Amino acid sequence: MFQSPLFQGLSPQEVRTALGHFVPRRYRKGQLIFKEGDLGQALYLVAGGMVRLFRTHLGGQERTLGLLSQGEVFGEMSLLDGSPRSASAEMLEEGELYLLFREEYQSLLRRLPQFGHNLALLLAERLRAANLLLDFLVFEEVEVRVAFALWRAYQKTGQALLPLSHAQVAGLAGSSRESATRALHALRKRGALELERGAVRILDPRLLEEIAHGLV
After folding, report:
1. Nearest 5 degrees, angle CA 151-CA 154-CA 155?
2. In sequence order, which residues have a C-beta less than 8 Å from that of residue 79 and are 6 or more positions away?
3. What is the CATH number of domain 140-213?
4. Residue 153 phi, psi (nearest 5)
5. CA-CA distance, 159 to 50, in Å (whole number)?
6. Which of 6, 118, 130, 161 has the greatest number of CB atoms lying within 10 Å of its CB?
7. Contacts of 119 (CB under 8 A, 6+ apart)
8. What is the pLDDT of residues 183-198, one digit of tens each?
9. What does the alpha-carbon distance between residue 177 and residue 157 come to, in Å, rounded to a whole number?
10. What is the CA radius of gyration of the chain?
11. Class of domain 5-131
């Protein structure tokens, strides 16, 4: 968790000081952390477990936006402007989150201005990544998009077993469930992954990366 981009450039003692402003909370597998539209009052830092961000469209269909693991941050926009949550978040695994509420954030900035600079850099990086992802989703074929989504999830979480349904993979890849299922079976035939009940197991990360970047 000390490797989180929030703590870049801080000494170990300063990181401990920063963490003193956070409130730890444990969550069970499948527990909803917050819902889209909720008033946001805190930033979340993943200390353990895996978090899924998603949006719910008309008719109740969910679209998975991303997976987060140890050291990653979410909910920062609502912390800064107090706006309603733009997405929902749930725990895919039992784990612990550290919450930073707005009052403590202001206090932390006075003690460690570098923390605010790091948060600004994080927001800029996410905007840049979102723009690149939008281009990718528009122009690439579904199989490549599915491979890229799974490879990125593997890179971020470090876990070969990703607890994702076909519908959740479709959300990450920006495709229909049917198209994502066909792509998953094609990737399985190529030996890149195996399909398990409610999960995808990455068998060959290197091959998946090559498919994701159009190298094979």
Report:
1. 85
2. 40, 41, 42, 43, 100, 101, 102, 105
3. 1.10.10.10
4. -65, -40
5. 10
6. 6
7. 6, 76
8. 999 999 999 999 999 9
9. 23
10. 18
11. mainly beta
Q: How would you classify the pairing of strands 95-101 and 88-91?
A: unpaired
Amino acid at 134: L
In tens, the pLDDT along 65-108 reads 889 999 999 999 888 888 899 899 999 999 999 999 999 999 99
CA 66 to chain centre: 4
Question: DSSP letters along the chain, please?
Answer: -TTSGGGTT--HHHHHHHHTTSEEEEE-TT-EEE-TTPBP-EEEEEEES-EEEEEE-TTS-EEEEEEE-TT-EE-HHHHHH-PBPSSEEEESSSEEEEEEEHHHHHHHHHH-HHHHHHHHHHHHHHHHHHHHHHHHHHHS-HHHHHHHHHHHHHHHH--SEE---HHHHHHHHTS-HHHHHHHHHHHHHTTSEEEETTEEEES-HHHHHHHHTT--
Are 5 and 73 in contact by the 8 Å Cβ rule? The answer is yes
pLDDT at residue 138 is higher than 70 = no
Round to whole Å and give the CA distance between 46 and 154: 16
Task: Give me the sign of the Cα torsion angle 125, 127, 132, 134.
Answer: positive
Domain boundaries, the chain: 5-131, 140-213
pTM of the model: 0.79
Mean of all residue pLDDT scores within the chain: 90
